[in-house]
Amino acid sequence: MSLPFSHKFLRRLDQSNQFLELNKLIGLCKSKQLIWFGEYHGEKRICSLLEQLIKNLGSSSSLSRPETTITHLPQCPRKKKNDNELHIILEHFSLDMQELLNRFMQKEVTWEEFIEIYKDPECYGTENHNLEPYREILSYCRNSSNIHLHGGFVPRDAARVYMKSNNNTERGKFLADLIEKSYLPPVEAIVWMEQNMDHCSRTKFPTLVSKKIENTVTENVTEEVLSLFSSSSHFSLFESLMSGRDVYSGKDNFSEGSYAKLSKMFQAQLLKDWSLAWKVHTTINKFASKKESLSKTNTASHINPHFLVIAGRGHVQHYLGAPGVFNWLSKWQASTRSAGDRINTILPEANVTNELLLVSQMMYEIEEIEDCKDDSEKLVTSNLVSNCMQLNGIKNDFEHPLADVLYVYDEEDWEDESSSDDEGSDDNQVDDEVVAKVETAAAYNKVGSTAYLPGNVKKAKAIMTHLRYTDEEQKVVGLSDLYNYQGVSNPFLVTRPKVGESVLDMGSGLGVDSFLAAYYVGSEGKVIGLDLAKKQVAYANKRAKERPIETEMAFNNVSFMQGDIEKLFDTKKDDLAIMPNGKEKSAIETINRTNITPAMFDLVISNGAFCLAPDKTKAFTSVFKALKPGGRMAICTSTIKENLDNETHWPVCMRMFERLDRLKPMCEEIGFKNVRIDMRNSEMEFDMPEEEIIEKELEENKKSRNKVHVGSVEFKHLQSLDMNEICAVVTVYGEK
């Protein structure tokens, strides 16, 4: 399979850089024994690259020099023993799935049976990755006798239980159980690292750090010893993935309150990192023991091992996460070996010269996609690449660049996928609330990355007409923005902004309702859009600059910022919302993060964002605080009419829906008056007019736009259900 996409492989070399051709990249990979591959899960271009790497790393040719070219490989590998071994450790499979992987590799189950067992909650059913994009890769591995597949992470259930543990005693016991199962390093390794890894600046993480080490015997070790830890740089990176803060700007560090809020999620992240690192460590050691045994028969010298670790990029960036723990484990192991001991390792201790970190990076900045995707020099100077790869010479507290090789690719022709993946998306799915936040940001960041591509205007107009947007309102939105409508209903049905009013649009998306509100309030009013996905914020601000030029009906009175609707007033003003920077700054220069204060707005609208707000009370409380006395709200959201049954596998979004009968009393308890639930657009499903014309237009689109509300094989069993019987879309109106 060829690589059917625009791509660049940027290699970082000390203070310089170079672009590699595919064959040079594969030659470089073949010169290394351990390769960390940070991916966006299920993306077709990444899977295509992985297939190329695996076919070459698992070939019968011996270990190559860095810059050699590759030989052509047959499409159908022969089932033949050779002198290479390739071990692939995958995030997609938990450690307890090893038996299933072995059965698949031994051809005891078909692909269909393999997937059925993988998804079956009675068997496993915890990881929920979309494996279809990896089918060709896994089938190739299945037909190669020298390729071995390994599960890499603790089961997601374990991460969920660990994150929900309420105290150190519970966590300590839980970690002890995982150590007993060999999912984590032994206690003595954790103790050694606790005593020796002073460079980690762990003092910033008091709840994670052991302050007392009384005994290295498992049953007598204090509970604090069994806490996992990492560096301040690692937490800063993790926090930036969750909040959208630009970790490379050098301007803002994470706040003191950030750790308290994210500590449990960070612990779940560490649990995954440590388990993956330990799996890599033990896999390498098992091979080393095997090679030592074979050396007695003089057959070991011809065995060339490669170890390929495939995980979400959030687990490997900057050699933090799993690679960092792995190198700590190598140092610990070195400390336990006696002089002349030849067993236990094939890699030099903490020697990254024998490792390669390859990380994927999407090109999502609209202007840079247009200007730089075929221009290597412009790409190098872009903020997208130069900051994270330290090409500007600034490290920003990271010892290593983001990667040894950065795989930058153009996502313009993305296909719609049922799996969700962005920085931190799959990596942090440890309970419904976390899943909702991470998947929402990830999915809508992908939407923002292709928002500039022309969409289906006829379909958008049909939906907006059904939701009772008038022809005049659709004209105000304009053809250049209509197809970016993302709402579930119409907030302007229950109340319209008045001239001169200030409006807050919570979950503003790509800005359609914000632009309409800006038209209603006129030049004397103002509108602020708040959204969780930074790429949507960047695009909406770009459109806010362009619209006054395109149409006389648009005023330069709207701006967008990134923020969480549940946490609008939880933190200090400086932590309230993260403003886009760089090219978008001029579009919001009159509004900064300190401008949003309680009792600031005449009207708060939202169109769909509350569906996925885990804490509805907190979200509506934010609305109440943001409103002036006498202010109004119009919140469009999806609800469930009755509790969902526990026997059915429901998507996360539906598990986040509020009960319809709870909305009114909830809002009244918060303090809203004259609360009413408008159900004029209550249908979740409705017949679309002009279906044939719409479908024809969709087929004729040459470039694919990322979408969120698409079908999923995982929830095929719900297709026979009448969603209008189960759910209802409502608009909640209330006054302060």
Write up this protein.
It is a single chain. By secondary structure, the chain is an alpha/beta fold. The protein folds into two domains: 7-152 and 285-412, Rossmann fold (3-Layer(aba) Sandwich); 453-735, Rossmann fold. Helices cover 37% and strands 15% of the residues. An eight-stranded mixed sheet has the order 2-1-8-7-3-6-4-5, sandwiched between helices. Strands 9, 10, 11, 12, 13, 14, 15 and 16 form an eight-stranded mixed sheet that branches. Helix 22 links the parallel strand 13 (627-640) and strand 14. Helix 2 runs parallel beside helix 5, helix 10 packs across helix 11 (322-336) and helix 15 (432-449) runs parallel beside helix 20. The longest helix has 40 residues, at 256-295. It is globular, with a radius of gyration of 27 Å.
